[in-house]
Amino acid sequence: MPNIDYAAEPAVAREKGTSVGGRLGLLCRSITERVPWYVWWLAPAFIILAVITIFPFFWLIYMSFMKIQLAPGKPDLFVGLENWVDMFFDPSIPHGWILLAQYVAASMVLQLGLGIGIALLINNMKGEGFFSTVFLIPMMVAPVVVGHLWNLLLNSSYGIYAWLLKTLGIYAKGSLLSDPQTALWAIVAMDTWEWTPLIILIVLAGLKSVPKDTIEAAHMDGSNRFQVFFNVTLPYITPAIVIAFLLRFMDNMRFIDKILITTKGGPAEATKTLPMYLFLKTFRQFEIGAAAAIGFTLLFAIIICGIIVTNTILKERGAE
Amino acid sequence: MDPRLAKTLKIIAVTLFLLWTVIPIIFLVASSFKATGDIFDLPPVGDWVGMLKLLFFFKASFTQFRNMFIEGPFFTYLGNSLLATGLSVLISVPLGLLAAYALSRGRIPGKKHFYFWVISTRMAPPVAVMVPLYVLWRSFHILQTLPGLVLAYTTFNLPFSIWLLRGFMDSIPKELEEAAYVDGRGRFRAFTDIVFPLIAPGVGATVILCSLMAWNDYLFALILGGRAAKTIPVGISELESATSILWGQIMAGGTVLIIPMIILGLVIKKFLVTGLTMGAMRG
Lengths: 320, 283
Fold this sequence. Notes:
The structure holds 2 protein chains of 2 kinds. Chain A is mainly alpha-helical.
């Protein structure tokens, strides 16, 4: 910021100082000068972020101690810890956590396993560029479309994947999504379809950092493929795998679009993961106070993961 | 293992994965170009030739698109989608640029806490955020309006663009701007003349990734957008009711939704991994 010496213009200052407006102008100017430049650059984003993130955060906590009445004119009632206590007696909540854990764990294992495997296979293969182009397609597809698309693919009378499962003699009982035994796994499959490609691309990027001569040297020493992988390649791509893991982990904890489109928590509560239960509690039963308590718990759990991610990413970049 | 066998297995594995990835997309696009009756024409179990016909050799028809856009309300939804996406990007990216520059160049006390705040908003589960936003938007009287939806998208696009752009700016050496100061240009001119052109590709990638997130959103549009700001994802989902499912139009809507994003994704292919990992990986 240019450093203008206002003391060098005494005549103007004296003249302006005589009127109230002039004094105000001077006051503003001296404040402007004392505030570091970055405040002005940061202020618009900061203010908007504060209104749309910090306020809702505290409002969420506030609501968890209230009985929120949506009907106009009815005031919210303070209920103390009722919502929090109720949470411990609601059997849907441990059920939701368990389902969420199963969903996240299954997705992570499948996506990381497949992703790392395919990345290793196509690394330096002919047509690698083509593959990485094709693999970006599913990531671009809106989760809503993924949900509807797989709903039709698995549809017992019109779906080609249901047809395939019948033809191969694997499953002929109808749609995987309407069977409580398989519904959650069908959603895992959808998520795996959409996001394994991201893991492939991340791991591929990591593989580019492995020095080729180190691998050659290891082969020369007589190490076999597996030894080379575990001793040379893996340490180089571990940061990439950690990042892929954390990103997918958090997103799987957060998003419910696919469940909301395909099963809405059913059949027989088989896909009522905690965030899905939270959605139903809020927008179907309108128990906003209770939902706020659950929402805060979920937020808190994910923020804990978030701290780990932030530290990892910052360490990865070597910043701060 | 015999190297030739290993190579064959490798090719089989990669081909299977490739098929697993593209068949749903082919099915989606193929179904959207079929007449309503043809969509349900599944070959008998075991008829592989019939399956190939279903995916590749069918009578093309624009019935679904006509029903959606000319007879149905999808032009309005498309407009809402474009407006909500465009406006949220127009707010998020310029403000993100200013904030990112300040964060990258300023010696700001407590910067780390700010970073944590920014990145934590990207981790909040939308369902949990939706509850207080719903109440807040109602008291602002922007519930179920387009401005309300735009502001809702800003809750995730602004932090995302700050975070990503800061990463791009950190990679530009400060010395370049210092030369500009010597030339007598102010900080803002140094930013617009020196820094911005250098990170322009990164800004482009940020614009596209922010568009992607807003364009693909369903939950915010469903709850906060409501009737007045119905976007395509919400419109598509409404084609499924308790009594009937208009599969053809749902697939056609899906095609309309994914084609622009796939093209944009290809444009920023180089930045995709960087962007989707929030700068943690260089693609």
